[in-house]
Records
---
Amino acid sequence: MIQATDKPSDAVRLDVWLWAARFFKTRSLAKAAIQTGKIEAGGLRAKPSRLVRVGDALRIVRGEEILQVTVAMLADQRGLAETIVAAQTAPQRATDDTERPGVRAARAQAAAGR
């Protein structure tokens, strides 16, 4: 169970921060996303125990959207995402033809084969 501490911290675990910022419904889902390479911190693949600090840039892939966020505030309890995230780019589609060629063709072929 996550508990608030009395002394202020200058860093929070990545999986806890993603859950607190409401990018994932549970901490387990955040941890699974990190372990499967869907979260990058500073352009590098991260681990769930990586410490996040204010100002860190994160790249989050959720389903077919890609989010670029900047950490504005540290939190280890769920709160309003708007106060925890400083800047967020508009979600991009991960199925862009330049990133995953052939995805649309494969989906169309699979739909036709039903």
Note: The chain has a mean pLDDT of 78.
---
Amino acid sequence: MKKIIYRFLITLVVLIFGGIIFLSTVGIKTDKFNSKITEQTKKVNKDLKIKLNDVMITLDPLKFKFIVKTFGTNLILKDKKIQLKNIKTNISIISLFNRNFSLSDLVISTKPLEINNLASFLRLLKNDPKIYIAEKLIKKGYVVSDIKLYFDRFGNIKDNYQVSGIVKDGRINFLKKYDFKNIDFNFKIKNKNFEFADLKLFLNEKKFYSPKLSIINIKNKYSFFGKINNDDLILLAKDLENFIKIDSINSNIKKVNFNSENNFQFSLD
């Protein structure tokens, strides 16, 4: 009798540990969480639709939670579509067994997106004049980003969202006088704080580099802090006229060749 009990207990332990290892490494496909992800997505906009494909669930035994991840997802709003790489969320095992679970966070990773298409999509999501202006000024570029949303216990989106990613090959034309192109940078956004790093661009065919740029939004003002470095930058008289009036300093400047490292700070309402 004891041998049977021992064998049963050993078999049970092996099955439990085997199941934990399988769920932690391989996972299983399920559609159990599709409705919950769809429900949370509509908290952003009631007209926002989400097309879910395979949903994979894995176990994190150390944190006692399930990791739910979907691949090849599309967000659809009216006639605009955004392709996503994946959506990931965490669900407490305890809340799952209580059958009263809700999502505490949602991590959205995008595929490379054309910035103009993204701006058009965001304007449908929130009709903000700033987005409309950006849509008109931006001529090209691609963005890849990770968006992390947090929800309160009622399922509403909290203000402590986080966005990070990279922009490649951007171009902005401003008043047909300032042509910004080959724009590359990394970015992080936390609520009303914006951090940009390794900003590289050409302004009217002149190369500029900024290792860091910060923008802080306080009430109705945006404060800018940053640094610009230039190596062997050559400006002709016609280039200088875009920045200063040559006649006002009574100079016969034909060409300027300089290196610089500048810190700057200013505010805009």
Note: The mean pLDDT is 78.
---
Amino acid sequence: MTISLHILSPEGTLVETRAELVSLPGVVSPFTVLPGHAAMVTALTKGKIRYVENSTEKFLPIREGFVEVRDNQVEVCVEV
């Protein structure tokens, strides 16, 4: 099972893919989203978004943002 990942910035879509997991720099602490994760909305802080796509680890540095997780979908809006 995979997660639908969309990462957007004011400039446009940065990432649109299916991922096996997504790790995000939450303001309280970093966290990882796996398939079946509980619904949540939270703020993100400066750091790197890490995701695994087709068994390949990828990174996207960000300054800040927000994420919504629901129904195996991760929607992220960030400043890069």
Note: The chain has a mean pLDDT of 98.
---
Amino acid sequence: MNSEFQSLADALFWEKVERARGMKPEDRMQAGPELFDYACGITLTALREQMPGASEAELLAALRRRLAIKRQLEEATR
């Protein structure tokens, strides 16, 4: 990653951190599920690219498998 892109990415990250610090606790609690849904949407988009002929059920199953793998990896590092 070039330094110009990295400095922009860093600035965006810290902007998000500052915005989160200013949020009310109840807003922060709501942001968690919203971010999870957003991340799942991005992952489903990537899966559609990787599996162009897959049905929606197959894509959701692939997403569930990835989430299960992530959970296993997290548990293994505890």
Note: The mean pLDDT is 92.
